[in-house]
Write a structure and sequence with these properties.
The protein has about 525 residues and is of the alpha+beta class. It is built from 9 helices and 24 strands.
């Protein structure tokens, strides 16, 4: 009995000793993804930077694997242990989320032995276009938990209440000119017409003039001026009409929101002369069918035949096999009810974009990458849907494919664009604190230097392989690149309106050459990352 008690006491003492020792060598961790999905928290993993951002409403926290500090609601906090990756799952210290997301449900924690991982990713973008990270190859995170449908900051209606005028198009009709204004969100307006001047004042939109527009000046419109409203709010469109009698009409259409303005012709159709007054009542002939007016329906232009093109673009090799399997998200611009730029006798922009994107997916997969298309058919996607799909796929790079077009027949060549907030105007009072915080955080955490690095590679490859001119690499506040979490570029693969380039874009072989050129640029991008 005494031996038994001694054994019990010894066991208890050992247990107390171990409980005192374990905290020095182990810490409580939780699965970051499980916690986020259980509480409807947006989470985004940046594999190259080994950075995790979790965000819900106004609250956010940013971790880096191997670092013992985090940024919670824009303030640096000390962590009890460093975030780490194990079996392709991100684990964070359980106590790091206290007070960041009030009311959040807890998830089971596990004890892990902290490691002294020095995995901080540092890079420099220099004139030689070389990026030199200081650590081993980042490990991609493969989702271990099936995603559940939870509210996501990118699935909710944007706090950006101001709409953007995306396009201005016109068409000439028999008795009027039709002008279509396409917006990203609904707007309100008022109009007035006096002495041939029709003024359209639009509120609830940014004072940005779209690059995608046609010039409606002609038979019914002698002049069009587009100006900013008072205090840089909204737009004012002033049409000077060739007629001064008939008031223009407006119709609005949703999904996408469009304003259809019909401006009456300055040369009204001849009216039928009325019969002179007569005492004798007119004789009504009921046995004669009145003649129907003949309507001449214009024939659609014949589709041009693609030229014979033989461009050989040999696919290059990815030197560092550690980058095999990286995900490239491809966004074929426009689609469905949004045709993009149109040119008589040639397919619309949306078709060329999709066909090129499909070829690009094939070539990227041949090179060893994983490629994801945001649309695989002629589907309408609004900006919110595109953004949500792009960020949910968690790619390493994002490439938006577009085709240019212009009324200037001399304009040709390829161009690449990256995002900048310069020239983007918004009112904090209208947007609200949530939008301001999210936008500011996105600008701080997004690698625009990597985007520019990729854009230069793509631009150089296209001009080299296709033997076309370059319209340059430009920073612009483009909506398709806004809030994309990974390095993103928009590529204009040519001008559909150009006499030569437009015909080339019809050719499948030319689109294949474009796809191979962009793939070589992606390979060169990753080959330019020198691991130490």
């Amino acid at each position: 009995m005494i031996k038994s008690n001694k054994k019990y006491i010894l066991s208890a003492l050992m247990g107390l000793a171990m409980s005192a020792i374990i905290p020095a060598f182990a810490a409580d961790y939780i699965n970051a993804e499980s916690f986020a999905e259980a509480n409807g928290i947006s989470h985004q993993w940046f594999p190259i930077q080994k950075m995790l951002i979790m965000r819900k409403g106004l609250n956010s926290i940013k971790f880096r694997v191997g670092e013992n500090t985090a940024i919670a609601n824009e303030k640096e906090i000390k962590l009890s242990a460093t975030p780490r990756i194990q079996n392709n799952v991100i684990f964070i210290p359980a106590d790091s989320l206290k007070g960041v997301f009030p009311g959040a449900r807890s998830v089971p924690s596990v004890q892990m032995t902290p490691t002294n991982q020095n995995t901080t990713f540092q890079s420099s973008y220099n004139n030689q276009n070389t990026i030199k990270p200081a650590v081993e190859t980042p490990v991609r995170i493969q989702t271990q938990v099936q995603p559940v449908e939870q509210p996501n900051i990118y699935d909710q209606p944007s706090q950006d209440t101001d709409s953007i005028l995306l396009a201005l198009r016109h068409s000439l009709r028999e008795d009027h000119t039709r002008v279509v204004l396409e917006f990203s969100n609904p707007v309100s307006y008022k109009s007035d017409f006096k002495n041939g001047i029709y003024r359209l004042t639009i509120s609830g939109c940014k004072n940005l003039i779209p690059t995608k527009r046609t010039d409606p000046v002609g038979r019914d419109i002698s002049k069009l001026d587009i100006n900013s409203g008072a205090n840089r709010e909204g737009l004012i469109l002033t049409f000077t009409l060739t007629q001064k009698e008939k008031t223009p009409t407006i119709e609005t259409v949703a999904d996408p929101f469009r304003m259809i303005v019909e401006l009456p012709s300055g040369t009204p159709l001849p009216e039928v002369a009325s019969a002179p007054a007569s005492i004798t009542p007119p004789i009504i002939k009921t046995d004669i069918t009145p003649e129907q007016p003949t309507v001449n329906v214009p024939k659609p232009p014949e589709m041009e035949k693609p030229p014979e093109i033989n461009i050989e673009v040999p696919l290059e090799t990815l030197q560092n096999k550690s980058f095999l399997g990286r995900t490239i998200v491809i966004d074929p611009g426009h689609g469905g009810s949004d045709p993009g730029f149109e040119y008589p006798g040639r397919p619309p922009e949306k078709t060329i974009n999709l066909e090129t994107a499909k070829y690009l997916k094939e070539e990227l997969e041949k090179a060893g990458f994983k490629a994801v298309l945001l649309r695989t058919n002629d589907t309408t996607l609004n900006s919110t849907q595109r953004l949500s799909l792009a960020n949910k796929n968690g790619g390493d790079l994002h490439i938006a494919i577009h085709t240019g077009g212009s009324n200037d027949n001399m304009k040709h060549g390829v161009a690449c664009f990256t995002f900048t907030d310069k020239g983007l105007w918004y009112d904090n009072n209208i947007q609200g604190a949530t939008y301001d915080n999210v936008f500011a955080e996105w600008l701080k955490t997004t690698r625009f230097d990597l985007a520019e690095f990729l854009a230069k590679k793509i631009n150089n490859r296209l001009t080299k392989h296709l033997q076309v001119e370059s319209r340059g690499v430009t920073k612009s506040p483009l909506l398709p690149l806004k809030f994309i979490m990974n390095p993103a570029v928009l590529v204009e693969i040519g001008m559909l309106s150009d006499k030569v380039e437009g015909k080339n874009l019809i050719s499948d072989k030319y689109k294949q050459a474009i796809a191979k050129s962009i793939t070589n640029a992606v390979i060169e991008f990753f080959n330019g990352i020198e691991l130490k």
